Structures are given as structure tokens and as C-alpha cells.
Amino acid sequence: MRPLIDAVLTTGMLVVVPAGLRLLRVPRWLLRAWWLGAVPGALSLWLERGPWAAAAASAYALATACLAVQAPIRLWSRRDPSSPGSRPPLRDLLAPREIAALTALVTPAVAAVALVAERAGHPLWGFSLKILALTVAHFHFAGFAAALVAGLTGRAAGDGPLSRAAALSVPGGTLLVLGGYFVGDWAELAGAVVLTAGMWLVGWLTLAEVRRGGHDRLTGALLAVSSLVLAVSMVLALSWALGEASGLPRLPLDWMVATHGLLNAFGFALCALAAWIRLRPEPL
């Protein structure tokens, strides 16, 4: 199963994040510099664990740190230059789609920390190497891609309660899942519930609002596939989290990678980002 995980992670580093950066307000130099970290990061996956693999992964961690720094810069840049010291209202700084964008900026750095530890063969905070590898995947797809798509979808669907809930629940669910790693399985289940609800809302809004915009057939098909995949993939995630917390039967971890992992990576993330790039929205 390891080659499959590595293929998913490589796709995240070399395809999903670069595509997503085109939909975010980030400096142009970062779009070019990303490859200086992403290529060694992807290469690290195919090297034997040890110092060389960890060093290559560290180059990726540096690239993700440059991306994460854009979050505080983004907040600072929203001050009113005509009124030194002033700030936008708190409700603007904490607007749901803004929180989604900030989440997309910082989650690859969380993935990179897990990647460096996993490639070094170090069970960070007591987590097994397999769990660390899956953490890398989670924060590329359920973190970066899902938060970005939730923010774009929420903005396109208007400022209604459902769009705000979708843009908030995806970052919130991702944070709860991360906290569940340290607090316990029931907290992780709560995160899975919130994240599932958010992803289903994103899928619903995409079908009900975004896809009705008279787009070409390919774009419409990509939007439909990305939305419908969530109906299946998030049920799998929810059932696995429930099984972990309650002891009920659940799919083995390898089967989760082959089903939930592949569906989210290729059915949701790649299709959704391809559709949004074709839509050419103003960067989030």
C-alpha cells in the first residue's frame, strides 16, 4: 500500500497545491519558488527513510513555511493605508471565506512537519510512521484543497447561511481532527462529523449554485464529479472515525487509503481544482 500512498502524496505536492496556489492571493514569486521545495519533497517519498530523505523533505517544509507566512501577511495587509493603525472590522477579518483561505495557507506546513518526521523514521509525538504519512495526505487534501474549494464555493454561492457554514465547517472540522490526534478518538470523531457536514454542504452548493452558471460541459462535469464523490468518500471517513471511537467494525486502514483516499485525492480535489481553474475566478 505504500506506493499508493506515495503516489497520492506526490500528486498533492506537485499538482494539487500548485493548482490551488493559482486560486489564492499569493505573491507571484511563491508560485515559481514552490517547485524548489515541492520537487525535492516529492523525491523524498521515493527515497529510503533516513538523512537524505529527511533533508529532501526539509526543502519542502521550507516552501510550506513560506506559504504559511502569507497568512499573517495577508491579515496585516488588510489594514487601511489611509488611516495608519486602523484595521478592518473583526467580522471582515473573520469572514468564513477568509478563514477558509487562511486555513489553505497554513495546512501544507502541518503536512510538511509530519513528512519530515516520517522520512527521518522518527515517530513524532508517538505516532506511527503510517499515521504520519496519512497525516501528510490529510492536510494536503482535507486541509488545503478542501478549505480552498469551500472558500471559493462559499463566495460564489453568496453570503447565505449555508455558504458561510460550508466555508467555516471545513476548516473547523480539519482543526478538530488534528486536535483529535492528541485528545482522543471521540474528539476525532467530532471533527469527522463537522468536516463531513462541511464537505457535503460544499458538494450541495456546487451542484445547486455554482454548476448552474451556464458553464461548458467539461467544467460542469468536473464540478459534478467533485461534488458527487464527496457523498461516498465522506461516509467512509465518518464510518472509520466512528469505528475507531466506538469499536464498531470499520474498513482496515489500507482499504481506507484505496477508497476514501483515492476518491478524495482524484475524484474531489483534482476535479474541483481543475473546474475552478477553468472558471477563472478572482483569487480568494
Automatic annotation (TrEMBL):
The lineage of its organism: Bacteria, Bacillati, Actinomycetota, Actinomycetes, Streptosporangiales. This is YndJ-like protein. Pfam families: YndJ. InterPro entries: YndJ-like. The chain crosses the membrane at residues 6-24, 29-47, 53-77, 98-117, 129-153, 165-183, 189-208, 220-243, 255-277. Keywords: Membrane, Transmembrane, Transmembrane helix. It comes from the Bacteria.
